Amino acid sequence: MENQNWAFPAHLQPKPGAYGFNLESALDSVVLLRAEIPEDAFTASFLGTERVGNGVVIRDDGLVLTIGYLVTEASAIWLTTNEGAVVPAYTVSYDQSTGFALVQALGRLKLAPLPRGSAASCRVGDEVLVAGHGGRPHTVKAKVVDKREFAGYWEYVLDEALFTAPPHPQWGGSALIDARGRLAGIGSLLVQEDAGGGAPQGNMIVPIDLLEPILDDMVNFGRAQRPPRAWLGIYAAEVSGQLAIAGVTANGPAAEAGVKVGDVVVEVQGKPVKGLANLFRAIWDVGPAGVTVELTVARKGKISRLSVRSADRQNFLKKPLMH
To answer: In Å, what is the CA distance from 72 to each residue of 64, 91, 195, 217, 300?
Structure first.
């Protein structure tokens, strides 16, 4: 359980009356989210069985937007408001491609939703707020320090993520609020962000723009109505310019095909790949989940060609109990 008895220094907190929107109402839309996950869940070993983060109320009926890793496979979820009200909730949907998840409160939160804006309107250098549950003490005045592609080792790519600094220590599911008091993104990670002259820490933010095309599908069907991406179950890393396999998911497609830790991926479908984003996009370009992906790997000085029958990652996860 994360300690909530902390605060940003006063000079980093937003000041009442300094904004052209209702600051208190905007910050009240950010709730504390706690989730319990069964010990036998697919993600329990690496994401834990007790997860704590934030969520943002985006609809009057208590629909909450958060980052997916907090609630994937959750068997129980509780939302806590800044007034101390605790309301149970359940996972509506988790979109693997964006990282967004939707949670529905099972009781009245009595909170105004935070209006959604656009990350496209946030420019590098813009001042923003990164807000966690707890109001001003848990909200930091930050700047957008970069907007660029992001590739995560777990088969995840964003065409353009936002990077903010200074960092929020409870970044998961936090709200990126623009100068007009609108939700521009959801906090995902703590990163080392090179802003020139060093590598200070910052947060990676998933742009809210990715939600709009899939929101109705997530609410109505529990997932975006598009073909699921091919998933191999690999954890890849760039090491000295090479794409090394740092881990494989037990009983996942890659493991079943004989991919091993330490393998260096040289080609996908007979074409050279360079960089994490290029690797994952090359896999997805072969076809949707279920397609066979041909990997060429270097292993102990020898070249091996492996055929990996991809899968839908969602099929390995425990499903929400309600929808």
So the answer is: 14, 8, 32, 18, 37
- Digit-coded pLDDT (tens) for 273-318: 999 999 999 999 999 999 999 999 999 999 999 999 999 999 999 9
Look at residue 2 in the predicted model and tell me its pLDDT. 57
Per the CB < 8 A criterion, the answer to whether 13 and 136 are in contact is yes
pLDDT at 166: 97
Q: Are 252 and 245 in contact (CB under 8 A)?
A: no
Helix, strand, coil: what percent of the chain each, to 5? 15, 40, 45
Q: List where CATH 2.40.10.10 sits in the chain.
A: 13-113, 119-210
Helix residue spans in the chain (DSSP H):
23-28, 44-47, 215-221, 253-257, 276-286
pLDDT of residue 198: 55
Q: Which two tokens stand for residue 142?
A: 């930050």
For the chain, where do the domains classified as CATH 2.30.42.10 start and end? Answer: 234-316
Q: Which residues of the chain have pLDDT under 70?
A: 1-3, 193-199, 321-323
Q: For the domain with range 234-316, which CATH number is right: 3.40.220.10, 3.90.1150.10, 2.30.42.10, 3.40.50.970?
A: 2.30.42.10
